[in-house]
């Protein structure tokens, strides 16, 4: 008869282990690296951490700094600038109508495979030039000495570039209405938006850091498990009392289990100290 294998842990204990492992992976993933993406930036200045996430939703802007139309459009004289931040452009209306759009969607889908495009009138014809792509983008501070001023999103194409300064304004989103050109093909524009403000500022050394995020993640996962389990047992199994809480016996006994795990260790340490003291015998001369 084969020897019995190790006894598996109770299901609630196994669940806690799985929740902890999942939370660890989430917490460590969130704690690693400063940038995190083409529209995310974290910088430390003066003992504080400033974090920006331009594409994260806000109460007033569910797509963050992204244009809900799929693109921003700025016209100056005979030139038209289209761009989108944190994503490629999408045109459901008013698409670019210009020549030489092969590297950004082609003539039938002009503008849909890049993040910034400009049209200039050359010899009576509107000619397109790709000036930025999502894969070639960089995020930096507008003012290195004042992180709260906002950030600059710079995108590149093989020969051109575009710099979009997102100035922090917590009350209003003011879309750009002009742009400037420097050098051969380097464009720049500016607008105000709440997403340009630092989303979290924490003093260095304060708070729990990644451990606090890990703890909150564990609580969220555990709370979701209890809530979903209780709803299922209440509506589908017809349990209409406190017994609807899944693994109720385990949660009730959990404090005693913890106490049982901790108390023996304390007793063993006390006994060890006593034995050590008992080994010394006074000798009278």
Automatic annotation (TrEMBL):
A GO term from the CC aspect: Golgi membrane
InterPro entries, A to Z: Autophagy-rel_prot_27
This protein's UniProt keywords: Membrane, Signal, Transmembrane, Transmembrane helix
Membrane topology listed for this record: Single-pass membrane protein
Signal peptide range: 1-29
Location in or out of the cell: Membrane
Transmembrane segments: 208-232
Protein name: Autophagy-related protein 27
